[in-house]
Write a structure and sequence with these properties.
7-stranded mixed β-sheet, Immunoglobulin-like, single chain, 33% strand, 592 residues, binds copper (II) ion, mainly beta, globular, 13% helix, 5-stranded mixed β-sheet, 12 helices
Length: 592
């Protein structure tokens, strides 16, 4: 390898302040050693009479993903023990868990059996459930353990999902395959003339990196430990290069971004605008039309698309180029058209060819854990699809003829608006300050504490509050007295402004009941990114519905109104960039 290029690589890394970070080992194997497999779980309670009872086993499996060798994954398998057999829909030959189908008002019991070689707990993302059923990491169970969830479905019709919330291991466990959809239905939604059955399809968007022998590679050392994992292939519904045969009629797509850190800017290749009919919390009052739709990790959107007139053609759901979600040094050095492309040319092309050996995740034990020996840090950086680059997600081949069609209803269902004057704090929003401590991102100035919740994180039950999420780099203390260790991660940063280094978008997720966005205050022109990046994403937000995850762009302020009904206890709020969450960008709010 040419010295000049080596020097260039080193400079890029130094520019990003990542010199010392590169020698640190991935956190994943460390967890295996540190965590004692101690908890036995939770048993069923006699007083709870379930309408539906499900067994959900988390275990190691092998599935076909790419041509050739099968891929070792971690996967949920579901089985109905009692109630409607259609409550569990298994996706064959897939790492994704089953689709669970519930109805509002049903009482659900889920037996989660942990057959993984690691602690585990499930979070019902989007579902409004009691503290003991929310998957708080303090409830995680060891290998062989069982955790029984019991809850009543209080959500309106909506598309939710379930995934791990294991302390320090959510990111690696979700990446290994542990995720599934929860579709809630209710009478009002079923009465609407929307596409159903084979015309109502989920699209679960993820990205992965594979070794040459088809194994999942999860390496987020170096830059990606700060930025979050970004893979080199897009996988939709568990399949790379997904192509679906569709009819020339209308479809409803329930889209989940199940990636660890990838953000998508959804658009149709034929120039049709995106018709959005639902958000995290189900249907909107009426469809909204956007030129493109931003969807960040954890979020769901429902879109409606009519393929009439496209018969014989192929229409692609793609992700368009955008900027402003990653720190400027990343976007400048590695953004498409930037230095990264020049480097790829210099290195002889193909992504993933640099840096020698590539090993699997080694999830079963010590095998492969020290791996990645031959892979240089720059190789890791160069082996992903850059955040914000253009990519194809799903190809739709419109080749079936349909006799009937369902037109788009212009009214969907009502959403009572939460009003500012009904909140207990209309003039003093509770803060969610996005900051940092050294190389780790924080919330309200602190890293995660298992049972910790400060005064501003405590909410009386059955109240409505105004909250404001904002970026606080530069305002928060940058160093909490662990100067040596934390400082070393920043060597090579030189005079680079820390705020700029860490200026990135965070998808912020609040457990509990859905919130509504009251106000979105765009970044000032003098923020770290300026207005340029924001311009490329701002027309893709949908703030009209119920949500529990919101992408907060650098310099942006978001005011939201959130109820805290029904349940007391500790509920998490965190960044849904899963590497950020695992590094401590998570806190509790305590409902009392
Ligand atoms: Cu984040």
């Amino acid at each position: 390898m040419n010295d000049k290029i080596n020097l260039k690589r080193r400079r890029v890394l130094q520019t990003m302040g990542l010199g010392a970070a590169l020698v640190s080992t991935p956190s994943f194997p460390i967890i295996l050693k540190k965590e004692a497999f101690k908890r036995k779980g939770r048993q069923a309670t006699a007083a709870f009479a379930p309408d539906v009872e499900i067994e959900l086993t988390a275990s190691v499996a092998r599935v076909p993903i790419l041509q050739g060798r099968q891929t070792q994954v971690w996967r949920y398998e579901g089985k109905v023990l009692k109630g409607d057999p259609a409550s569990v829909v298994t996706l064959p030959d897939n790492y994704l868990g089953p689709i669970l189908r519930f109805r509002t008002g049903q009482r659900v019991r889920v037996w989660m059996k942990n057959r993984l070689p690691q602690n585990h707990i499930i979070h019902w993302h989007g579902m409004h459930v009691p503290f003991e059923a929310d998957g708080h990491p303090s409830y995680e169970v060891g290998p062989g353990g069982t955790y029984v969830y019991e809850f009543e479905v209080r959500n309106r019709a909506s598309t939710n999902w379930f995934h791990p919330h294991t302390h320090h291991a959510t990111a690696a466990q979700a990446y290994a395959g542990l995720a599934g959809l929860v579709i809630v239905e209710d009478d009002e939604e079923r009465a609407l003339p929307l596409p159903r059955g084979e015309f109502d399809l989920p699209l679960i968007l993820q990205d992965r990196t594979f070794t040459p022998d088809n194994q999942l590679l999860y390496d987020h050392r170096g830059p990606l430990s700060i930025l979050g994992f970004l893979g080199e292939r897009i996988v939709v519904n568990g399949k790379p290069d997904l192509a679906l045969e569709v009819a020339d009629r209308s479809y409803r797509f329930r889209i989940l971004n199940g990636s660890n850190a990838r953000i998508f800017k959804l658009a149709w290749s034929d120039g049709e605008p995106v018709t959005v009919i639902g958000t995290d919390g189900g249907l909107l009052e009426r469809p909204v039309i956007r030129p493109y739709l931003m969807i960040s990790p954890g979020e769901r959107y429902e879109i409606w698309r009519d393929f009439r007139g496209a018969r014989g053609r192929e229409v692609v759901l793609e992700s368009r180029e955008f900027k402003g979600t990653m720190p400027p040094p990343y976007e400048n050095a590695l953004g498409s058209g930037g230095m990264r492309d020049r480097m790829r040319q210099l290195m002889g092309g193909g992504m993933g060819r640099m840096g020698g050996s590539r090993r699997g995740m080694g999830m079963m034990g010590s095998e492969g854990m020290g791996g990645m020996g031959g892979m240089g840090p720059m190789a890791i950086l160069s082996r992903h699809l850059p955040q914000g680059s253009r990519m194809e997600l799903v190809r739709f081949r419109v080749n079936k003829k349909s006799k009937e069609n369902q037109p788009l209803p212009d009214r969907l269902r009502s959403i009572p608006r939460y009003r500012l004057e009904e909140t207990v704090n209309p003039n003093q929003p509770r803060p969610i300050a996005l900051g940092n401590q050294g190389r780790n991102f924080t919330l309200n100035g602190h890293l995660f504490e298992m049972t910790g919740a400060s005064k501003i994180e405590t909410f009386p039950v059955n109240t409505l509050h105004l909250l404001e999420i904002f970026h606080a780099h530069g305002e928060m203390k940058m160093n909490d007295g662990h100067s040596d260790e934390e400082g070393s991660g920043m060597t090579g940063m030189g005079n680079m402004n820390l705020a700029m280094m860490l200026a990135m978008a965070h998808p912020i997720h609040l457990h509990g009941a859905y919130f509504q966005i009251a106000e979105r205050i765009a970044p000032h022109g003098d923020s770290e990114h300026g207005a340029e990046g924001y311009e490329t994403v701002k027309d893709g937000f949908v703030d009209e519905g119920y949500q529990e995850t919101v992408l907060v762009m650098p310099g942006e302020r978001i005011r939201l109104i959130k109820p805290f009904p029904d349940y007391k206890g500790l509920f998490l709020y965190h960044c849904h960039n899963l590497e950020h969450e695992n590094a401590g960008m998570m806190r509790n709010f305590k409902v009392v």
